[in-house]
Amino acid sequence: LDAPAVVVNLTVTDTTSAGGFLGVWPAGSNMPNSSNINFGPDDTVANMVQVGLGTSGQISLYNFNGSTDVIVDVEGFFAPSSVSTNAGGFVPLSPSRVCDTRSASSSNQCNSNGNTTLSAGSVITVQVAGGSYPIPASASAVVANLTATNTTSAGGFLTAWPGGTIQMPNTSNLNFGPGVSVANRIIIPIDPATGTISIYNFNGNTDIVLDINGYFTSGSSSTQGLGFNSITPTRICDTRQIDLVGTLANQCDLNGASSLGSSQTLTVKVAGIDSLPNVAQAVVANITAADTTQNGGFFTVYPAVIPSASPPTVSDLNWSQGEVVANLVEDGLGANGAINVYNYIGNADLIVDVTGYYS
After folding, report:
1. What's the pLDDT score for residue 87?
2. For 163, left (φ over 0), alpha (ψ -120 to 50), or beta?
3. How many Å apart are CA 184 and CA 318, to the nearest integer?
4. In this structure, are residues 216 and 85 in contact, taking their beta carbons and an 8 Å threshold?
5. CB neighbourhood size of 356 (10 A)
6. How far is Cα 182 from Cα 319, in angstroms, rounded to an integer?
7. 242/9 Cα distance (integer angstroms)
8. Which run of H or E residues covers position 215?
């Protein structure tokens, strides 16, 4: 009961209404003006949630519209600050792609023998730590964005776990239908013997893409890492034109509607905004794309740097035209305490709801 925060994979299914969303926050506190997962009718959608624990170690969930079933899979928790150990510290990394099963122009461990699309019931093992990889062999868990694309079947899902001698759990990390690209953040323990994780595909064929954002330390790590601090979920950015009577303006709509256009990057200040202190070095936030106009769209989130640099070859959130889609991000902050959000194609509104920070 003394754990300050929890990491869960939240799934909605059997949904009945368009424009639905769930909000998650620590039990016992006021419901915030934020959202964690968006859905339409007959959707099955998953999103990772990292949130503080409230009364009696509980979290509260609110459904905005229609009815939905909810599945909560616990992935881990954070130890109280009184526990003195190097284990469990977060180390943010520059986002990098370590696996892409598509027949891409650049070779990687997941397509070195040509296209290695996952078929129904198949498992792929992906190395994320040790050797030439940016995560050290002593790391305990990886923080990554998992994307399914070129999907062929309804009712599909992916399950990620440490692999090795550990039995595959009865959980899911990412759900999808045919012909879509869907992403979800994962925090998965790393097999200490091989530096790998395993990914299982339940049904049909799918390509997968795995982008690393950072890792958590172990008791044997020489690096201490950053500690997590949860806050009441707070909306710090909304590019929609919401400056109506009774609605507070925010840094992303001061000049009215400011949707992101193709190849446009928006810098969002994090450290020092609202309840986020200037000492924040990394952010945990739910980002949402709304009012999307183009198929094949995606956001890339990365630390803001001065001068501005090109976005890395990774993605954080994928959508088709007209979708409202959310995904959790865990990213380091740039020297100015900000993140950059890059929009690949078409127009899209951006919403950023912060649930915590690392310092």
Report:
1. 83
2. left
3. 10
4. no
5. 24
6. 7
7. 30
8. strand 207-216
Q: Measure Cα distances from 39 to 16, 22, 48, 64, 172 in Å.
A: 9, 9, 15, 10, 17
- At which residue do the structure tokens 């925010």 appear? 250
3-class DSSP state of 185 = strand
Cβ neighbour number for residue 345 with a 10 Å cutoff: 15
Cβ neighbours of residue 307 closer than 8 Å, sequence gap 6 or more: none
13-27, 103-117, 308-322: which has the minimum mean pLDDT? Answer: 103-117
- Secondary structure letter of residue 82 according to DSSP: T
Residues 172 and 158: beta-carbon distance below 8 Å: yes
What are 265's strand-pairing partners? 342
Region of residue 59 (phi > 0: left; psi between -120 and 50: alpha; otherwise: beta): beta
Spatial contact of 271 and 279, defined as CB atoms under 8 Å apart: yes
Nearest to 158 by CA among 122, 107, 106, 211: 122
* Radius of gyration for the alpha carbons in the chain, expressed in angstroms and rounded: 19
- The region, left, alpha or beta by phi > 0 then psi within -120 to 50, assigned to residue 16 is alpha
pLDDT digits (tens, 9 = 90+) for 166-184: 889 999 999 999 999 999 9
d(CA 351, CA 299): 12
- Reference 213, options 86, 45, 339; nearest CA is 339
Q: What is the pTM of this model?
A: 0.92
* 58-to-54, 99, 134, 153 alpha-carbon distances in Å: 5, 36, 35, 36
Contact 352, 236 (CB under 8 A): yes
Q: Would you call 348 helix, strand, or coil by DSSP?
A: strand
